[in-house]
Design brief:
A hairpin with a 5-residue loop joins strand 6 (139-145) and strand 7 (151-152). The N and C termini lie far apart (86 Å). Helices cover 34% and strands 24% of the residues. By secondary structure, it is of the alpha+beta class. The longest helix is centred in the middle third of the chain and has 20 residues, at 95-114. Residues 1-19 form the signal peptide. Keywords: Signal.
């Protein structure tokens, strides 16, 4: 009979040792305002609603047209030599300079998506350019997708009767990040070319 109280005490100590510490303010706040409490051991937010406990993932999906839904085209081989990701690598941009160039392109595309009905996500195919394109205006080439992943086509410049899978998103050359234009000029100089973006 003495053995049963010993088990009860041991079980109580085990529960205390494995409990996630929550101070009184957090506990009252969660119950009163139904706000999430971060549980360190499971890397999740615990939302308490009365007696119900729900675990919610700490990362919510980005809303449609958000820059988190915009990626840079990657690829291997000669056909992908000028893809956006490879072009970023070739410019030797690193750290905050690369991030600034990436964010500039994403924001321009996100703004274009806000004026494109049904736009949900995008893939930037080519960074801002006019060299090597039939379109003489500085533009970013991107494919825009709806929420099901289908391509939203755009009318071709100069012939709106033809629909293209790639959008030409025009950019003011003077608005381009300084790091980007300088990196393009350096790359062209190394290759014995000039002309800028």
């Amino acid at each position: 009979m003495r053995f049963i109280p010993f088990i009860a005490v041991a079980f109580a100590l085990l529960q205390t040792a494995t409990a996630v510490p929550v101070n009184r303010w957090q506990a009252n706040d969660v119950v009163a305002r139904e706000e999430p409490v971060y549980v360190r051991r499971s890397n999740q937010y615990l939302v308490r609603r009365g007696k119900d406990h729900q675990h919610k993932d700490s990362h919510k999906p980005a809303p449609p047209g958000h820059i988190d839904n915009i990626t840079f085209l990657k690829g291997h081989g000669p056909e992908h030599k000028h893809s956006a990701s490879n072009a970023l690598d070739a410019l030797n941009l690193h750290g905050h300079k690369r991030k600034e160039v990436e964010n500039f392109h994403k924001k321009v595309v996100a703004d274009h998506m806000s004026h494109t009905p049904g736009a949900h996500s995008a893939v930037i195919k080519n960074l801002a350019h006019s060299q090597g394109s039939r379109d003489p205006h500085v533009h970013i080439s991107a494919q825009i997708h709806d929420q099901h992943g289908h391509i939203i086509e755009a009318p071709r410049r100069g012939n709106p009767a033809i629909m293209d899978p790639t959008h030409h998103i025009y950019v003011d050359k003077n608005a381009l990040p300084h790091h980007y234009t300088k990196a393009v000029e350096k790359k062209q100089h190394r290759e014995g070319r000039h002309g800028g973006v």
